Predict the structure.
Amino acid sequence: MLGSLRGMAHAGIGGDEEAIIAASVFAPTQLRIADIISRPPDEWESRETGMEFAYLQDNQMQIDKMSNIVRLRRDFNVFKGV
């Protein structure tokens, strides 16, 4: 997503656990990837937001800086047309 994520976001339709959710300003109220649902902790309201992404690891939602996405998905920089 280019821009701000300040609401709910769902990814991974059909149980795709490799899906990610990313945004320039990452301040979601709820995230869902495949069948895993996560709500950010209350202290997120006072933190600075930035370019981040969410992904699943061992059936748990993880959040990381966008600059680390290549470590997780080495093929992420390859564009695959629809």
Q: What stands out?
A: The CA atoms of residues 76 and 82 lie 15 Å apart. The first helix runs from residue 69 to 72.
